[in-house]
Amino acid sequence: MAVITETTLRAMLRTGVPNPFVVHAEDRFTPAATDFLKGRGIRVEVLGSANAFSGGSEGALEQTIPVGVSNRHIHLATEDVERLFGAGYKLTPLRALSQTGQFAATETVTLLGPKGLMKDVRILGPARGVSQVEISRTDGFSLGIHPPVRMSGSLEATPGITLIGPAGCVVLESGVIVAKCHVHMSDLDARAFHVQDGDSLMLQMLGERTLIFPNVTVRVSPRYTLDFHIDLDEANAASLKTGDKVRLLGKNGKLFSSAGRC
């Protein structure tokens, strides 16, 4: 049983409180939480009720997606690899990542911010066109910067940071983000889940903490492998680890019917 408080709901305002707000039959609201939802016209639906999901084998309730938890990391442009590690340097693959062709490199660098530094931050390869640093909100407090929540590649009006490597330093004027949670899907996955690139999914955690992520962006590419990508802050809040599963509840702000459609 979960006790839903006004504080819990207010913490969801930044990303949006889902409407309807989906709960289990045994969950309970504090009086203040009830007033909070009523005052905003947010409807409550109970899983398993006639207005939510049935447990039918063909329903969207049965569709799950594996979780991939990402720690802080860096994507480097080719010229920044050379500035940090030397002319002509190539990243050395350490292990393959879940997405085809991507790898965690042996190389690490130090992040230097206005209030502190972080050592041994992993570089992910291969090198790309523009350098990008992905950290958690908690990391930002330690470094003294406050990056926005963005999809990868959306770097306008983002803070910069200094990168320190064994052969030199790189001062990025911009490029630090907190990665927005998203799902990678292949074309076949997208057809199976009846979604398309850019859709927003509602995903529910399985286990002790039945939290809901109400606005998870879908990214579709033939080279992608099915994966729900979150950072350490999100994983810790939801008690999730890589390999866990999340359940698909709906898309674009609407719950699926028992037939698996909005």
UniProtKB/TrEMBL annotation:
Swiss-Prot/TrEMBL cofactor(s): Zn(2+)
Keyword Repeat: no
Keywords linked to the UniProt accession: Acyltransferase, Metal-binding, Transferase, Zinc
Presence of keyword Lipid metabolism: no
One Gene Ontology MF term: metal ion binding
Entry EC no(s): 2.3.1.222
Catalytic reaction annotation: propanoyl-CoA + phosphate = propanoyl phosphate + CoA
EC category name: transferase
Source superkingdom: Bacteria
Similarity comment: family membership: Belongs to the PduL family.
PANTHER family: PHOSPHATE PROPANOYLTRANSFERASE (PTHR39453:SF1)
Classification via NCBIfam families: PRK15070.1 (NF011652)
UniProt-recorded name of the protein: Phosphate propanoyltransferase
UniProt organism field: Brevibacillus reuszeri
Lineage of origin: Bacteria, Bacillati, Bacillota, Bacilli, Bacillales
